[in-house]
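Model it.
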Amino acid sequence: MGYELHIERPDGFLSFDEWIASVDQSADVRLATGDMIIRDPEPGETTSWKLPEGTVEMRFDGEWMPVFYWNGGNVNFQLGSDEERVLQVALDLSSRMNARIVGDGGEEYTQVADLVPPEFR
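Modeled.
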C-alpha cells in the first residue's frame, strides 16, 4: 500500500450519511456498485472482489475506478496518476462536510498547491 491521505474531521468522525450526501452533490464521482474487476490481458484471467460499502469512484480515461474508501468515520484515498485532479475532488468533497485532508505524516492539504513541497513553491 502506498502513501494514504484521509478526509477527516479533527473534532470527531464523519457520518456515513454525510459522506453519501457529499458524493451525491458532486458530478465528478459516484458511489461504486458491484465488484472491482481486474483483467490481465496476457493469460486472459479475470479477478474480482466486492468493494466495501461507501467506496466512491472517479472516471479516468473513460473508465470508472474506485478512489475513495469509507472507513467508519473517515475516508481514505491515494492520489495515483492524476494526483492534482484527485486532490481537487477530495478538497471539494471535504469542504461540503467541514472536514480536512491529512496525510499519513500528519500534514494537512488545503489546496492543490500543497502537493508541491514548500522548498519548490
